[in-house]
Amino acid sequence: MKTVSLEQELNPWEAQAARFDFAAQKLNLDEGLWKILRYPQREIIVHIPVAMDNGTLEVFTGFRVQHSIARGPAKGGVRYSPDVTLDEVRALASWMTWKCAVVNIPFGGAKGGIIVDPKKLSLSELEKMTRRYTAELIEFLGPEKDVPAPDMNTNEQTMAWMMDTYSMHMRQTVTSVVTGKPLTIGGSRGRLEATGRGVLVVCDEALRKFEMSRESTRLIVQGFGNVGSNAAKLMSDAGYKVIGIAEYDGGLFNRNGINIDKLLEYRDRNKTVVGFPGAEASDPKQLLLEDCEILIPAATENVITSQNAAGIKARIICEGANGPTTAAADEILADKKVFVIPDILANAGGVTASYFEWVQDRQGYFWKESAVNEQLEFILREAFEDVVHFSETHHVNNRIAAYMLAISRVAHTIKLRGIYA
Ligand code: NAD
């Protein structure tokens, strides 16, 4: 891959495009298909006026990018953050296309975001902003068009407001327009823990490949939010030893293992993991470099870069977050023979359970939690096997293998459908 500046290295769109180009070249992808798949199909920018509680008017900027609808409705989360950029949303939308194709579910890829610090808004301002954003996008959303879900700083409540706004415009209740809803209005059992469960399943598969046991596997998890805390809980219950947790405001380390049930209670009571008495305080950035078998970045993008990749001691990296490793860091990790389970496979449990939620809403029949978990495990095991098989037959790392698998599936669909003109 070509040499890039640090700024380019940290741009998620550049990161996505670098992997896409490399995988497409390895596949000998037809030039026309390469042009279609390299860029999103549709990018929408909306300006959202909100009457604030203090009587002033504020205008927020929001995005929805639909990368591909070749394999089915566009699918992907909506994030609220002051740092959201169009390039980031573009990258995340493309990753959703590849992720849905890796696990072979009938969705394309999309992502949305609003430039906002949600902590500075009241609940009523958040609701108004969410509803107006949904209304601005109304003709582009729908169970057969584009199905949003929660992402960073959005949750079940956000999805309930989006579902209600869409339903009001349609003059009927349409639960399947979003996923990640509360259970009582068409949500799925198992959805909340699904991304963490997927991380457990793919780590189990990696252990099987390397003939390692759960009990002798030490984990360090970055991010103790939805993905990180659920992965830590499920994996510690399954016998793995969680020795480190790195959060935004501090880190925890205990070589004998951290009691995750107690940490969850502590976090819920104190709204932070800092100060937890069952572990030593530790520098969260240094924790990524501690000795362990599996490192799980489950917080945000660009945390493993050309600046720190050489210091990583983990044998396996399982990417709970989207885009935690830059393309330059990938090359360093490959030289060190680190087994990376890439984001578009490792965190696909979330969208897989979202697919089950969409199916249940459309069926009007809701599954037992055990059925959701069983189907999820089956799909992720198969995807893991497919990726490793691609990696071994094409002599590429797991990330490029996952991209190649995904690109070939999407390209095949486009070829069959043909180009409408
Ligand atoms: P979240 O907001 O629930 O949790 C993120 C956690 O990471 C927070 O506790 C935050 O304080 C922490 N954090 C943020 N930046 C950090 C940093 N630099 N260092 C240490 N900790 C930091 O979000 P989430 O839903 O768990 O999502 C996390 C990542 O996983 C994102 O990249 C998201 O796109 C991805 N993801 C989420 C899902 C899902 O189902 N929630 C599915 C697939 C991928």
How do the helices and strands follow one another from N- to C-terminus? HHHEEEHEHEHHEHEEHEHEEHEHHHH
CATH topology of the largest domain, what is it called? Answer: Rossmann fold
Quick one: CATH class of the largest domain? Alpha Beta
The ligands bound in this entry are: nicotinamide-adenine-dinucleotide
Estimated share of beta-strand residues = 15-25%
Please give the alpha-carbon distance between the first and last residues: 35 Å
Concise account of the structure shown:
With 421 residues, the chain is of the alpha/beta class.
Question: What is the topological layout?
Answer:
Layout: H1 6-9, H2 12-27, H3 31-38, E1 42-51, E2 57-68, E3 74-81, H4 86-102, E4 109-115, H5 123-136, E5 146-150, H6 156-170, H7 191-210, E6 218-222, H8 226-237, E7 241-247, E8 250-253, H9 260-270, E9 280-282, H10 284-287, E10 294-297, E11 316-318, H11 327-335, E12 339-341, H12 343-346, H13 349-363, H14 369-394, H15 398-417
Parallel strand pairs: 3-4, 3-5, 6-7, 6-10, 10-11, 11-12
Antiparallel strand pairs: 1-2, 2-4, 7-8, 8-9
Helix pairs in contact: 2-4, 2-15, 4-15, 5-6, 7-8, 7-13, 7-14, 13-14, 14-15
Bound molecules: nicotinamide-adenine-dinucleotide (NAD).
Verbal overview:
The radius of gyration is 21 Å and the shape is globular. A hairpin with a 2-residue loop joins strand 7 and strand 8. The chain is of the alpha/beta class and about 425 residues long. It has 15 helices and 12 strands. The chain folds into 2 domains: about 140 residues, 3-Layer(aba) Sandwich (Rossmann fold); about 150 residues, NAD(P)-binding Rossmann-like Domain (Rossmann fold). Bound molecules: nicotinamide-adenine-dinucleotide. Nicotinamide-adenine-dinucleotide binds next to helix 8 and strand 7.
